[in-house]
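fold-stage: in
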Amino acid sequence: MKEKKLENPIRQTIIEIKNLRKSFGDNDVLKGVNLSVKKGEDLVILGRSGSGKSITIKCLVGLIRPDEGEINVFGTDITKLNNKDLNETRARIGFLFQNGALYDSMTVRQNLAFTLKRHSGFLKSDEIEEAIIEVLQNVGLEEAINKMPAELSGGMRKRIGLARTLIVKPEIILYDEPTSGLDAITSREISGLILSIQKKHDTSSIIITHDMACAKLTRNRIMILKDGVIHAEGSYSELEKSKDKWVRSFFI
């Protein structure tokens, strides 16, 4: 498989993290993380459990406050924003959680409508329904519109979770272990869906994953976290051939 390349290598930097540090008590999780993502780029972040991958993206949307560092999103350091301005920035970012985070008491339609109303309360009922149908078509699950989350398979829940993220038309999507707990075939389908969404909507994405098949398919670049800092960065093929045995261990 050929390396996926950006159509325009000098596109705008949409995310830039500088010297990000975060500790929990005596546990120094992030010790100076630096990374950037350009418009329309998919960045995969790898690392062992506890390396700080999920903490990094939670800091990126203000769910966790860093101890030090800058987090520039759309040209603004979000660590300096008040709650109102931070929420306005969050509205432009989609976050796909590991479990899809659907409301179990709502149908698929109600889950999607609730999210859309919360972000765009001025829409009419027919506009909401049109948006729901469109986004379900995008993830290939239009027939699941009246189902409850308990009636969905793990892969279907991931797709609906992605639909709920997409329905507000985010400019950035953060994926936290998008293929976790799925079989190989379903994982490949979800990875393909992530790639098609990036191409169709020109989103910028950060993908946290342990799934190397997902990393190989979806990435423009890969970064590997170790001991609280970015230990290695490059394309899949470059890192796979790294002289660093620890880096190569991810690709075995």
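fold-stage: in (second)
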Amino acid sequence: MMDGILLRSDPLGDLVRDFAARAARHDRDGSFPHENFAALHEAGLLGLTARRADGGEEAGLQRVTRLVGRVARGCPATALVLAMQLIQLRGLTTNGNAPEALVRLIGRGAVERGELINALRVEPELGTPARGGLPATTARLTPEGWRISGRKIYSTGSPALRWMLVWLRTDEAAPRTGMIAVRADTPGIRIEETWDAAGLRASGSHDVVFEDVLVPLDHAVELRLPADWPPPDARQAGWNTLPIAALYTGVAWSARDWLVQFLRERVPTSLGAPLATLPRMQEAVGRIDALLLANDRLIASGAAEEALPATEAGLIKTLAAENSIAAVNEAVALCGNHGIARANPLERHLRDVLCARIHTPQPDSAYAAAGRRALATR
């Protein structure tokens, strides 16, 4: 038993160590860690947020943030795909408007066969939908079903997805927007391996192209006129942000742990003792621990709430991201050339943790939303 998660034979720590042992290779090659998801499925962790009626556990946000944070210590790319899996499963099963048969099909697939799901929302022209605008990806209504055409970028987990929740608009005179669930093996889908980023290189966040892809009518999760979409559900705000905050905090903890070991083992001849004996190093590590302790407490507190205001959720994610980046930067600065040598994992942790700022909400949006709320302006 570890962090409230019981695996059949191995503790979560063993699983994370296995992921860590492969992380450098997947980072170097930009290859997707398929074996990690086979292990997560074997451990019964890919369907945690599915309905109990479908074999899941309806796991809450506290359990999910702990799990994602721990997995991120081994392989943050795996943790990101896992976070998306658990977030999207939970969102689908609590939607209320999604067809029952579709919810059951996807939920049981996750539990029984380890099938992965993620939302594909970002587009070349649109950017992230969180900043507004209509998607260019379209769904055309035909007697046979929906015909979907378009391109999605930054499609995390694309090499292993079974289900793609595609954000799109209809081609009707008054276009509706929303999600349609598309099986990844449907004819007309093409993955272009465009993901070549500095960090999270193993996340498989490639482009996905849809060319007149035929999808059954009952795979529409929810479609509405843009003006008819309600404000974001406060219960979903924490789910969309806190697992991401936990992920990058996990990356920073890995950097911290490597630093501690390095300082204990590094004995410069001029000092004749480990660097860990220097008060300056002790103070620096204490500052790192303070940043990460603050993250852990913030995330745990937010995850314990049933309905976290979106502004608070955004601030927690932003603070956790900045604290994590600051912690890893401090670790790199303390190590000199050792910190940026590719033979050591610290430079990889630095590249990975910098990705924290990219996730919605970005810092400017989070601070602006909080400021508007405080000043009561539109």
